[in-house]
Amino acid sequence: MNDAKKALQLYQPVNLNTLKRRFYYPALNIIFIGCILLLFTGCEKNFDIGLDYTEPQLVVEAYINTEIPAYNYVILSKSQTIENADISSIPVKNAMVKISEGSLMQNNTIVWDRSSTVILEETTLPDVPAGIGDGIYTDPKLQTDPARALRGISGKYYLLEIEVDGESYTASTPLLYPIPIEHLSTDYHYTDEDGSNKGRITVHFKDPDTTGNCQLFYWRHSDNQKSFGWGSLGTSKRIINSDENNNGSYMHLTNSYGFVKGDSITYYMANVPRSVYNFWDSYNKARNSSGPLSTPASLLNTINGKNVTGCFSGLAISAATIIMN
After folding, report:
1. What is the dihedral of CA 241, 239, 173, 102, to 10 degrees?
2. 108-145 pLDDT tens trace
């Protein structure tokens, strides 16, 4: 594989339920990441994510959310250099990973409450397939005292601190307030090529009358009912939303995914800060860029440190469930 093709590596959220086979089949390990690295097949694209390919990159996928303590986790991996014929990434073990809560003061500074600091550890959760704990950091209280495990609080700020191999990395994110889902509806029914009856879901909500609101969307249904992690849930690059042109309006966003008739779908809408939205928007644009005339893509990294890329995503969650009729 030539250097141009190796350079087309992209951050992708990890699906924890498919990692086990990636550990046991090295050829597939090219897509394992602490957030997965994805190889594009086109060689004409000038792809630039602002990284120094002569040095290994720490890749960070980190989440703090308001509703699901088990989904507050950090995944770390280290990519190979572009000169290395083996471009698979390696899970980063034995890192010091901490998350602390903070408050915004009237002078616009954030005061971090060190008494709130939670040290995350490499632990295996009941819903995570056995044998894939390397590089996955969670609150150990999820096993010993789930009711007191790390849970994000709207209106607070969160600081991520990572120490590994003598290097330090940091990131921070606010946790906004959830935007309620008013209701879900089913429509656009059709018969798929396999003969199954399917339909699409529209999410209805009122955008707040403040500016700068951005949303990400995820869903759980029969295909991923027993899976774990944000990367294993359904998501769509087509319906991330920001409110530049619809501030304070009622929103009706239809998901292009076809759900099977009779399936139960839980829909998650995450209200996120602009920095998180910008990262995932840049990720989607980079993933979908193709062709010789495409504009070079850049990931809008939110992690501070040397030779690192990734995002610390603060998700303020609202949810609703519907049966596809």
Report:
1. 80
2. 999 999 999 999 999 776 666 665 667 899 999 998 99
pTM reported for the whole predicted model: 0.80
Burial of 276 (0-12, 13-18, 19+ CB in 10 A): buried
- The secondary element (H helix, E strand) that includes residue 167 is strand 167-174
Could you give the count of Cα atoms lying within 13 Å of 57 in the half-sphere of its Cβ? 32
For 259-270, how does the pLDDT look when each residue is reduced to its tens digit (9 = 90+)? Answer: 999 999 999 999
User: Alpha-carbon dihedral of residues 124, 130, 135, 138, nearest 10 degrees?
Assistant: -20
Residue the block writes with tokens 């602009």 = 274
d(CA 217, CA 231): 12
* Whether 77 contacts 175, CB under 8 Å: no
- Reference 139, options 156, 151, 153; nearest CA is 151
Q: Which of 92-106, 129-143, 195-209, 283-297 shows the lowest mean pLDDT across its residues?
A: 283-297
The rounded radius of gyration (Å) of the Cα atoms in the chain is 20
Chain centroid to Cα 59, Å, comes to 12
* SS3 of residue 321 by DSSP: strand
